[in-house]
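re: ur msg from earlier - yeah i can do the S-adenosylmethionine complex, just paste it... oh wait u already did. ok heres what im feeding in:
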Amino acid sequence: MRLRNKPWAAEKLANHPDIVIANPTASKGKWKELIFKNENPIHIEVGTGKGQFVTGMAKANPTVNYIGIEVYKSVIVTALDKAILADVPNVKLLNVDAADLLTIFAPNELERVYLNFSDPWPKQRHAKRRLTYRSFLEMYNEITDEKGEVHFKTDNQHLFEFSLESFSAYNMLLKNISLDLHKSTFEGNIMTEYEEKFSSQGMRIYRCEAAFRN
Ligand code: SAM
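and the outut:
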């Protein structure tokens, strides 16, 4: 993704503490109690980008709490605009690196992890950076509950195949695998910004769900 320098982004994020949670480690183990103030399940999207998916899901599913996680301020600031526009209480944003998930969420605190169009890191020597690499699955497993699942979409066939192998090697149960999501019977798909771009160019979208068996 091409990043534009937005020196004003930090201040804008700080001005919306109701949506962008500034000190997320302080809520570890207490996200439902302190932040959402309800007992609804929490779903996170790692690498949320400009936020169309996470805000769209929050609008469509008011009884689920959503957290969008994005490492770049210049990108998450656009997700903030969408969350403000959506005007729903069940979407929060975190400007953090996914590598820090264990400092932010307690064991079993979440129900689901969404990964949408994650950076493919095509070089083998960068495989550990892929968000479906084993070390990330270990983290997702730790912070999700007994229903814990990863829902994954990508345009990248190599990343998809790598991820299916990684889920399988981690003994996850694979469900609803689609090699062409937009020609499948899957209902209720909320498109991400990347998904809109790639599918409008005629590219197929791969999708699967993987459940932890603990
Ligand atoms: N999910 C969005 C979509 O489908 O339109 C954005 C996809 S974009 C290719 C991947 C996003 O993940 C980028 O915005 C990037 O900054 C973010 N990202 C990559 N690695 C991350 C990490 N370790 N922690 C948080 N965000 C990350």
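cool cool. The radius of gyration is 16 Å. ping me if u need the other ligands too
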